Structures are given as structure tokens and as C-alpha cells.
Amino acid sequence: MSLKGKTAIVTGSTSGIGLGIAHALAGQGTNILLNGFGDAGEIQKLKESLAKQYGVKVEYSAADMSKPAEIRDMATLAEKTFGGVDVLVNNAGIQFTAPVEEFPDDKWDAIIAINLSAAFHGIKAVIPGMKKKGWGRIINIASVHGLVASANKAAYVAAKHGIVGLTKVVALENATLDITCNAICPGWVHTPLVQKQIEDKAKVGNISVDEAQKRLLGEKQPSQRFVKPEQLGELVVFLCGPAGSGFTGAALNVDGGWMAQ
Q1: Does the annotation count 156 as an active-site position?
Q2: Element (H or E) spanning 179, and its range?
Q3: In this structure, are strands 7-10 and 58-61 parallel, antiparallel, or unpaired?
Q4: Active-site annotation holder among 60, 156, 188, 226
Q5: What tens digit of pLDDT does each residue of 167-216 get?
Q6: pTM score, two decimals?
Q7: What are phi and psi of 102, to 5 degrees?
Q8: For the CA atoms of 114, 89, 156, 187, what is the dihedral angle to 10 degrees?
Q9: What secondary structure does DSSP assign to 140-166, as a single string?
Q10: I need a surface site. Which of 18, 40, 61, 68 has the fewest CB within 10 A?
Q11: What local confidence, expressed as pLDDT, does residue 223 receive?
């Protein structure tokens, strides 16, 4: 448990990929600051469950990832509660699909803010503390859409390509320090966000949800299987551990063969 006693902020971690990552890090003895939306009672249960299951400390921030001041406050909360931030996982994200000429301005602004700018503000907030400690791991959850494009996803693809670029800059700026920055680029992961896309696809095509799911995977992901949040969590643990210390500025696609085509 090389991460025992360290602290991680995982944004968008009350469900989906972020929760899978929180479980993986807590399983290594890492204290966790959860972030995301949800019912207050359910979030309290989640905090208590993680703390009991793994014997770690768990805190929660309701910071809105579209608001830089709240992101800074989240980092301050982690520093006050745990004494610093060792690992930052920028995972929070939203999605909307439409052709460019029909894409609502407010949707573009929201996706860029939450999927890209939030990562910048989070990194900016924690880097000084990581430099003081002489150690840090920053992991940005991008997407295979940070490497290639799909139609009707202008804002999402732009944001995720931006995340990959931001990752490289932060890696270069800290290359001589024991502070790494990497991006993970998943293919289809069965999250609430992707489930909505499946349901929308079913409505548009007048097909069953199961058929829509098969078509979604069939179009892009040769494995015909969803990537699991737990798998992404294990990759985060690897990148934070001794064996991952040589990785920085990398964009690692976990995509069931999507990029191999």
C-alpha cells in the first residue's frame, strides 16, 4: 500500500468513473475528498461506507466545477482536513450532442467550463502544495475523444483534446520534480452519462435500449465490451505508485481497441 496516508481529491466521484477511482485509491489507504452532485443522505452514506470499508478518512465537497472560487475552496478544504493534497484526479464531466450549427451557446460554455477549465483551476490550486511536499500525482480523465473525434460532439471533443494538451504542459513544467501529470483516455464506460446517450440513441432510432447499446459499442469499440470504472481505478493506482513514476505527459487510451482501427 504505497499510497497509505496520502490524500486524493477525485472530482465527479459520487458515481461512475470517479467513484470507481475513489474506491481503488481508498483501497490503497488513501484518504479521499469526494466531490459531485447527489442526495445529501446518500452522499453521507457513501462517505461512511468508504471510510469503514477501507479504514481511511473521507471528506466531501459540493464544489461546482464551473466555478473557480469553489474549486479553490475545495482544495483548501482538503489541505485543512488532511494536511495537503497528494493526488488530484480531474474526472468531473458533462455531455451534450448536436451539430455545430445547432449547438446551444450555453451548452458549449458549460462543457468547456466543467470538462476543461475545471481541471486547470484544480491543478493551479494544488500544484504549490505538491511542490512544497516534493511529490504529487495529477491524473486527468480525458476520453478517447481527446485523441479522435466523433460527429455532434464539438464541445466535448474540444474540451477533451484540451485536457490532453493541458496534461502535456503541466508534465513539462514539473518534469524535474517528482510531480507527474498524465491523462487517461477511456472508450465507452457504462456510466449514467453514457446510459443517457444509449437511451437517446434508442429514441432517435426507434429501437430497444439493448439494441442501441449494441450499436453504440459496435460503431467504435471492437471489444464489444464496456470499459469498467474499476479498471480505470487500477490504472490510476498504478500511475500513483512507484511503477508509474516514469509516466508523465502521457495520454493512455483504455478503449477496447477503438484507437487501433
Answers
A1: yes
A2: strand 179-186
A3: unpaired
A4: 156
A5: 999 999 999 999 999 999 999 999 887 898 899 999 999 999 999 999 99
A6: 0.95
A7: -110, 0
A8: -150
A9: EE--GGGTS--TTBHHHHHHHHHHHHH
A10: 40
A11: 96
